[in-house]
UniProtKB/TrEMBL annotation:
Gene3D superfamilies (UniProt xref): glutathione-dependent formaldehyde- activating enzyme (gfa) (3.90.1590.10)
Domain of life: Bacteria
TM region positions: none
Species: Arsukibacterium tuosuense
Protein name as catalogued: Uncharacterized conserved protein
Family annotation (PANTHER family): CENP-V_GFA DOMAIN-CONTAINING PROTEIN-RELATED, GFA DOMAIN-CONTAINING PROTEIN
Example of a GO MF term: carbon-sulfur lyase activity
InterPro entries xref list: CENP-V/GFA (IPR006913), Mss4-like_sf (IPR011057)
Domain CENP-V/GFA span(s) in chain numbering: 4-119
Keyword field: Lyase, Metal-binding, Zinc
Family: Belongs to the Gfa family.
Length: 133
């Protein structure tokens, strides 16, 4: 069994996930764009992995968009996205909150019909290893 560790940006909430991931999706729906303030969300999903809060579980809060299955958990101090358990027993882990490297590549892009116009052709955009001067 594999253990993954993660935390929020301020370090208040820390967790461990034990088990395997069933899927890794890059979601381009409008809800995920609003959640992340970016082009897409990158979430790992598991039906069997176990989530354990190591510290700061009291600083984790959740929001479910009324009338949808869209749920987001986050640190109430720094706002970082954190794992959440959905009503169907599915564990969703934002990939960026993991401190342990994940060797799994994304399974698929989903909801690409909502893809941001500026999120197309990004392979032609210049890359910098740090902040450009």
């Amino acid at each position: 069994m594999t253990d993954y560790f993660g935390s929020c940006l301020c370090g208040n909430a820390k967790f461990k996930v034990q088990g395997k991931f069933d899927g890794f999706y890059l979601c381009h729906c409008q809800h995920c764009q609003k959640d992340t303030g970016s082009a897409h969300a990158a979430n790992l999903f598991s039906k069997s992995a176990k989530l354990t809060w190591l510290t700061g579980s009291d600083s984790v809060t959740s929001f479910t968009l009324p009338g949808t299955r869209h749920k987001r958990s986050f640190c109430k101090f720094c706002g970082s996205a954190l794992p959440s358990i959905h009503e169907v027993g599915l564990l969703a882990i934002p990939a960026g909150c993991l401190d342990t490297q994940v060797s799994m590549s994304p399974t698929a892009h989903i909801f690409t019909s909502s893809k941001a116009v500026w999120d197309r052709g990004l392979c032609d955009v210049p890359e910098f290893e740090g902040l450009p001067e």
